[in-house]
Amino acid sequence: MVPKFPSFCRRRIMKLMYKVLLVDDERMILDGISVIVDWNKYDTELVGKAMNGLEAYDFIKNQPPDIVITDITMPGLDGIELVKKAREDYPSIKWIFLSGFNEFEYARQAMRFGVKHYLLKPCNEDNISEALNDIVKEKKEEEEALEYMKAMEEEVIKNTVNDHEEVLKQFFIYEQITDKSRTKMNHIVDDLYPSEPFLFWMLFIEGKIAYDRINQLIETINQSFLHEQVITTLIENKVIVMMRYSAGNQKTIKRFFQTEMEQSTLSTTSVLSRGFTKEEIKKIPTLDEMVQQVFYQPRHSFITYQNWFQFDEKFKSDIEIDLDTILYYLKQQQKEEAVSYLLDFIEKLKIHQVAPKITRGYFIQIYLLLMSKLAHHSTEDRVQAIGRMEDYQHITDFITYFEDLFERMMQEETPKKYSKVVRQMLTSIEEEIENPELSLQWLANHCLYMNADYLGKTFKKEIGQRFSSYVTNARINKAVEIIEAEQDIKVFELAERLGFGNNPQYFSQIFKRMKGFTPSEIIKSNEG
After folding, report:
1. In what residue span(s) does the HTH araC/xylS-type domain sit (predicted)?
2. Residue 423 main-chain phi, psi, to 5 deg
């Protein structure tokens, strides 16, 4: 929902035409997209086209666009490197990625750089228009919010009562402590805690936020700690409190937190820092460091500094999870055992104090490998799931998600009742899997003697995917079985045996697109 800003802000925002740069190393695609999209319809104008990433970056430096639509795989400087290079100096640019390769790693890398739109070639006008429409809407909301913030900043300048809160907010919003922010923090300390240490208290609020309720919480904190020189500010779903440090403060804060949570409808976890002096401003933890402390702790905890995790930022080679074990449990319809196995893995991560961002990486890898067993799920579903997992702030979010995933996987293992004609089609696919001529039309003409269009619609309705996609998935899964059984098999032999004729290169491309690695890589790993 778009936030309702005061009318004095809305009047200041005029209709803008957002500048778009189009990047693709294929001239036909470049010219095609530039022509088929009605740019004016979405308050946009195409201001430039580039044939590669280097050319695009030069254009961005000379004439920064608002939106860049770019191919991922390009010579010289690919799409990932282009956004990585450009985002430092031009963070406001919005990106739409195009790719002819259905590879989840690309999407995952793109999302790490803030890219939310990832379209597979060939994409039509509707695909691009939908992405453009979303981005323009997002740009307008950001501009309205920016105008609102500017208006509020003007009000703060007029009313210095809130000056300390604003300084505290800016201090924690930016990851790097600048000389300017340190100087302002020094002024606060000189004003409020000239000869005493101070601490920071973060209340992390989960779920949908009722801002009036949060404002009420902030007011309650201010009133409850009047004698402690309290400064409070709100950053998204986090209330940051700065106050005087004393021996009894920790107990007082804990009592307040427990009492407030008993009466509150907010789901909140509390994180308390140690005491700092003016000379230790550089050692104050960042907002992200405080948020990370929530990750492994039980929800609604009161986390003191003595219980903070000292996170390890490296992957642990001795922490492994056996996916075959999970798959075995799921095939046996033993969900509780699968979840228990996952919980044992999580306990190892917690004991080793593995950093949350590394843990997210572990779970995304586990997810992608498990999903390779569920061919019916679309790429878009996976990309959205990865995006959600990148944002998870608590380990229990992963547990909940994987419990649901296990349930869905077990349902996939449960035999379904298909119509007679679909059962015949599945049997024919299994029997003719090595036949290079196997297609819907061939099956209709040589096996079932029925209308191909009818067969295709019936198959899609009951199976959930197109006949050709199902056949390709079946062949690639069969290839994995053959590699495991015949470890000295050659790639060209696999291609011939699975209906790809004398085109092993195409077979390898399809294999990698689905499994994330080539058949040669699996064969070599088996040899090792």
Report:
1. 423-525
2. -60, -40
Asked whether residue 454 falls in the same domain as residue 382, the answer is no
Decide if 312 is inside a domain: no
Query: In 284-387, where do the E strands start and end?
Result: 302-303
Cα–Cα distance, 174 to 172 (Å, whole number): 6
Q: How far apart are the first and last CA of the chain?
A: 55
Strands (E) located in 184-230? 198-206
- Structural domain contains residue 426: yes
Q: Are residues 285 and 371 in the same domain?
A: no
- Give the integer Cα–Cα distance in Å for 130 and 123: 11
Task: Decide if 6 is inside a domain.
Answer: no
Question: In which residue are the tokens 């033993």 written?
Answer: 334
CATH number at residue 507: 1.10.10.60
Instruction: Write down the H helix ranges in 436-502.
Output: 440-443, 452-463, 467-485, 491-497
Residues 87 and 28 both lie in one domain: yes
Helix (H) or strand (E) holding 202: strand 198-206
Residue 205 Ramachandran class (φ > 0 left, ψ -120 to 50 alpha, else beta): beta
Per-residue confidence of the chain (528 residues) as pLDDT tens digits? 334 444 444 444 445 789 999 999 888 888 888 998 899 988 999 999 999 999 999 999 999 999 999 988 888 888 888 988 888 889 889 988 887 766 556 666 767 777 878 887 777 888 888 889 989 998 888 888 888 777 766 665 445 446 888 888 888 887 566 777 788 888 888 888 888 899 999 999 987 776 778 888 888 888 888 888 889 999 888 999 999 998 788 888 999 998 887 777 788 899 999 999 988 888 899 899 999 999 999 988 999 999 999 998 776 667 788 888 988 888 888 999 999 999 999 999 999 999 998 899 889 888 878 876 654 444 445 667 788 888 899 999 999 999 988 887 777 655 567 888 998 998 899 888 888 889 999 999 998 889 999 999 999 988 888 898 889 888 888 888 788 777 778 888 888 888 887 888 888 888 887 777 788 877 776 665
* Contact call for residues 244 and 198 (beta carbons, < 8 A): yes
CA 486 to chain centre: 38
Number of domains in the chain: 4
Asked whether residue 10 is domain-assigned, the answer is no
Question: How far is residue 413's CA from residue 284's CA, in Å, rounded to a whole number?
Answer: 51
Furthest-apart CA atoms within the chain: distance in Å: 91
On whether both 103 and 229 belong to a single domain, the answer is: no
Could you list the residue range(s) of the whole structural domain that residue 352 is in? 323-411
* Rounded Cα–Cα distance for residues 455 and 207 (Å): 46
Distance of CA 54 to the CA centre of its chain: 27
